Amino acid sequence: xxxxxxxxxxxxxxxxxxxxxxxxxxxxxxxxxxxxxxxxxxxxxxxxxxxxxxxxxxxxxxxxxxxxxxxxxxxxxxxxxxxxxxxxxxxxxxxxxxxxxxxxxxxxxxxxxxxxxxxxxxxxxxxxxxxxxxxxxxxxxxxxxxxxxxxxxxxxxxxxxxxxxxxxxxxxxxxxxxxxxxxxxxxxxxxxxxxxxxxxxxxxxxxxxxxxxxxxxxxxxxxxxxxxxxxxxxxxxxxxxxxxxxxxxxxxxxxxxxxxxxxxxxxxxxxxxxxxxxxxxxxxxxxxxxxxxxxxxxxxxxxxxxxxxxxxxxxxxxxxxxxxxxxxxxxxxxxxxxxxxxxxxxxxxxxxxxxxxxxxxxxxxxxxxxxxxxxxxxxxxxxxxxxxxxxxxxxxxxxxxxxxxxxxxxxxxxx
Length: 415
Ligand code: NAD
Fold this sequence. Notes:
By secondary structure, the protein is an alpha/beta fold. The chain has 14 helices and twelve strands. Bound molecules: nicotinamide-adenine-dinucleotide.
């Protein structure tokens, strides 16, 4: 196996689960590959008058439990294998959270940082023009992901609504509030992750008020995790980083002041009264809780032996390779696996769909309470399963999710 191909990693994680569950080889074979993929060419008129053809994808991995759901990434390094892996993880994530949804993911190879708002709008509309028959509120519901945002979602919802001739807020989630978005979506991923950290701390006998935390990545997931860890638990954030490097303060950082510094200077580095550290050093710090919240494959067999945290909360997708996971398990690190830890985003996206369909919008407190209930219940089903099968938390999350998907496939007569 190529250690770092995300789809091969997703398949190898499933293979390990198939062994634990003694899955029928035919069922296992069905689950190893996506059910459907659409590859499209998107001609977009650029501001200089030329037409650029962008390549786009949508992968619907498995819809046994309901319409598929998953974000759309705009990224220069997007590959079909990344989209396939993320679509597989969405399938397991929705099943683990017991949402009535399957998993999907989309992507466009483009460099959004080099494009104007007009070009991004035309690209977003072109994506829907090619995809509209493939998606829909009862089929497949996209959402934002890396380098797409609520504005992108508003353009896409508008384009879909125009094509089908009626307002279809439920076709897409992560929309701005005034066009059918949900309260509580902005920090949902971090908040959901921290609800699982709270449960993990009880399990490990850790006092969160005295806990130290290091966070890699200071975007939506990382920044909100820093703010909420401080406000909900009173924990101390001793290190954060972004793509340019990291900062460390034994006394603890003020997350909001770091955000303001990053907004002004484009990075967390050089924040006053902190020591510079590299991203590599951050992952190996002696802290109670480590939160990778940036990229895939940052904890590998090389650096896993040096991880000193007691709890690893995987807010990023796929931050730990399978070999690293084994090492961490042997070291006794309590890992909250990615598709459990970062499921708060899709859970509140699902709440957004429910609100769109019922035309009844909830206040923030209700969103938080419902999210807490879902995350806490998913954490405990993973913990109980890890004890019952004597497997690590990552494998246990797969066992819970795959059993649910296979159960739905059986009931539908697919297998
Ligand atoms: P974002 O784009 O808002 O932030 C990403 C952060 O990572 C930025 O601070 C960036 O500087 C940093 N980064 C980039 N390259 C880095 C590197 N080489 N080393 C260290 N830091 C680096 O993205 P986000 O929405 O916060 O997503 C982060 C992770 O969380 C991704 O893996 C994403 O798939 C996952 N996730 C996010 C959500 C969500 O709702 N935002 C939901 C589920 C999973």
